[in-house]
Structure formats: structure tokens, C-alpha cells
Write a structure and sequence with these properties.
310 residues; alpha/beta; eight-stranded parallel β-barrel; 44% helix; binds flavin-adenine dinucleotide
Length: 310
């Protein structure tokens, strides 16, 4: 199917509730590397469910200090080998020398992986960030280092509600600009729940001379207390309205899923109204919520979940 007919199919599929969406939406999905065979089976089911939505890419996270190095590589390499969806491998600088990181990057290139999500990472146990003595000091240096190794397509992280290590909005933006100047092709944001904070951030980034795409990271929430722990670590605000929407649903998991999909789809609709066309979903290795939200946004399967042609 060519791009025009793909857009046409999605336009025709848009529900009346979201009838103002033009059907030109692109999605990407983030997974974490599985620890057990059971988790691997679940991840692969999730991938095969989302694959027919023709994501722009799928990415696989990297654990602190390279703790998931082999699992991240195995997952990304399998996606590259067995599907037509472009995979992106996350890579962090924490507790590794430049040589070690460069070796990981070369192994990705050799496995046909062209897209890296280049990150500084965090110290284990939440300690203040300390660069490895022979390592890349931050994501800016990592991006520059990767560009010397090969012509990687590089995504970096961005923070609509400001990174906790940053002194102010402006220095966070300066940092993002320097990552772009070092060779990054796009930014993917930390999750957030106020569409206006993303739109403000995107506009401030444009005013700061950042013209690469900034893709909002969407976390469908079905458990507020779990999300609060993650939000506290990365400085994301959980609005009072969201807490109250989940109030009283502790014993109603199915209702929580429905509320979650509604909140996330509404947020995407508002972002769409603000001009956003690409969305990155934090799937937590579960397909249903991301699939439902994409469906509400008018996305429909466009290819069978077939094995990659030999
Ligand atoms: P950097 O951009 O290097 O810096 C982080 C912040 O520190 C900057 O925003 C800046 O404000 C501040 N800062 C840095 N240097 C200076 C300075 N000299 N002066 C002032 N301020 C400064 N973590 C993982 O461990 N594995 C993953 O797979 C992973 N995937 C992620 C994917 C996305 C899309 C996002 C948004 C985050 C991800 N993270 C992951 C989390 C990330 O590693 C942390 O947020 C980490 O704290 C910062 O990484 P960074 O690449 O943004 O760092």
C-alpha cells in the first residue's frame, strides 16, 4: 500500500468521535528487554499485535550500567531479522568506557540496526550522575561518538517538564540543542500528562533553533501508584484530575484499562489538534492499550503480521 492510500485508509477508518483527525498519524512503540522465556513470549505477542499498524519504528530499552546489554541486543536483532519494522536500540553511557559502548554500537551496525536512542542514563540506586572516567560524559558526547562510528539514525531524550538535573528550562533546551547539533535526528520525550506542556516545549524548542522532530512519549496509565513512582524519578507531574479519575477503581482492572485508553486517546487528540502527527507509545510490553489508542486515532492494520520475506 502506498503512503497516499495508507493515509486514505486511516482517514476512512477514523471514528466519529475523532472525525477531525485526518488519518496521517504515525506511531512508534517502546519495549523493554524480557528477562524470562515467558516474558519473551509475551513481548513477541505484543510485537506481532502492534506490527500490522506499520509503526515507524519500535525501540528496546537498555538497563542501567548495561545490565540488559545482551537482552537488548538479542531483542533488537530478532526484530531486525524477523520483521520489516525498523528497530531502534537504546544505549546509555552509565558505568561503561567509550570502548565498551563503541563495541556495542558496532555490533548493532553489523546486525543491520541503524537507529540508536542515545542516552546518558541514570546511576543505579538513584545516586547523582557520575560519568565513567573513560566514558562518554553525557548524551551530547555519546551522539558525537556514535556519529564517528557509523551513519546511525539517532534519537535523543527530551523533557517537556524539564529534566530533574537541569537548573532551568533554558539550560535543558540548550542541552537538547547541543544533542541535535552533535548529530541527533529527532527527540522523543519523557512521558507527560498535560498536552499543553508538550506543545509549549515544542514551540520553545523551535524558537531555540531546534528544527528536528520532537515526538511526544505517551504512557497509557492503568495504575496510578506505579506511575507515580516513575513520575517522581523523572520529574513528570501527575495531575490531580488523573488521580481522581482512577479513584475507586482499585478493584476494577478492566475499568481502569478503559479509563486509561480514554485519557491517552484524548491527550493524543489534543496533541493532534496542536499539530502533532507522530506518537511514541511506552507499551510496557503490553499491546492492548497502545493498540486501542491507535485504533481510536484512526490507525488500522495495513499489513499482515507476516514473517520477514527471506
Ligand atoms: P543528557 O541529555 O545527557 O542530560 C540529562 C539532563 O541533565 C539534561 O536534560 C540537562 O538538563 C542536564 N544536564 C546535563 N549536563 C548538564 C550541564 N552540564 N549543565 C546543566 N544541565 C545539564 N534510561 C535508561 O537507563 N535506559 C533507557 O533505555 C532509557 N530510555 C529512555 C528513552 C526516552 C525517550 C527517555 C525520555 C528517557 C530514557 N531513559 C532511559 C532515561 C534517561 O536515561 C534519563 O532521563 C537520564 O537521566 C538522562 O538521560 P539524557 O540522555 O536525557 O541525558
Amino acid at each position: 500500500m502506498n503512503l497516499n492510500s495508507l493515509a486514505e485508509a486511516r482517514r476512512a477508518a477514523a471514528s466519529p468521535l475523532f472525525a477531525d483527525l485526518a488519518g496521517d498519524i504515525g506511531a512508534s512503540f517502546e519495549f523493554f528487554p524480557p528477562k524470562t522465556e515467558k516474558m519473551e513470549a509475551q513481548l513477541w505477542d505484543t510485537f506481532r499485535t502492534l506490527e500490522p499498524l506499520a509503526p515507524r519504528f519500535v525501540s528496546v530499552t537498555y538497563g542501567a550500567g548495561g545490565s540488559t546489554r545482551e537482552r537488548t541486543h538479542a531483542t533488537v536483532a530478532r526484530i531486525a531479522a524477523e520483521s520489516n519494522v525498523p528497530p531502534a536500540a537504546h544505549l546509555t553511557c552509565v558505568e561503561a568506557s567509550r570502548g565498551e559502548i563503541d563495541d556495542v554500537a558496532r555490533a548493532y551496525w553489523d546486525a543491520g540496526v541503524r537507529h540508536i536512542v542515545a542516552l546518558r542514563g541514570d546511576m543505579p540506586g538513584g545516586a547523582p550522575y557520575q560519568p565513567h572516567p573513560d566514558g562518554y560524559a553525557n548524551a551530547i558526547e555519546l551522539v558525537a561518538g556514535l556519529k564517528k562510528i557509523a551513519a546511525f539514525d539517532i534519537s535523543v531524550a527530551a523533557y517537556p517538564e524539564v529534566h530533574p538535573d537541569s537548573d532551568c528550562v533554558q539550560s535543558d533546551l540548550d542541552n537538547l540543542k547541543r544533542k541535535m547539533d552533535a548529530g541527533a535526528n529527532r527527540a522523543i520525550t519523557q512521558f507527560f500528562f498535560a498536552p499543553e506542556s508538550f506543545l509549549r516545549f515544542r514551540d520553545a524548542a523551535a524558537a531555540a533553533g531546534i528544527d528536528a522532530p520532537i515526538i511526544p512519549g505517551i504512557l497509557p496509565v492503568s495504575n496510578v501508584s506505579q506511575t507515580r513512582r516513575m513520575a517522581d524519578m523523572c520529574g513528570t507531574v501527575i495531575p490531580a484530575w488523573m488521580v481522581s479519575l482512577f479513584d475507586g477503581l482499585d478493584d476494577h482492572p478492566a475499568a481502569r484499562q478503559l479509563v486509561s485508553a480514554t485519557i491517552a486517546a484524548e491527550m493524543c487528540r489534543r496533541l493532534y489538534a496542536g499539530g502533532v502527527r507522530d506518537f511514541h507509545f511506552y507499551t510496557l510490553n503490553r499491546a492492548e492499550l497502545s493498540y486501542a489508542i491507535c485504533h481510536l486515532l484512526g490507525m488500522r492494520p495495513v499489513q499482515p503480521a507476516a514473517e520477514k520475506a527471506a
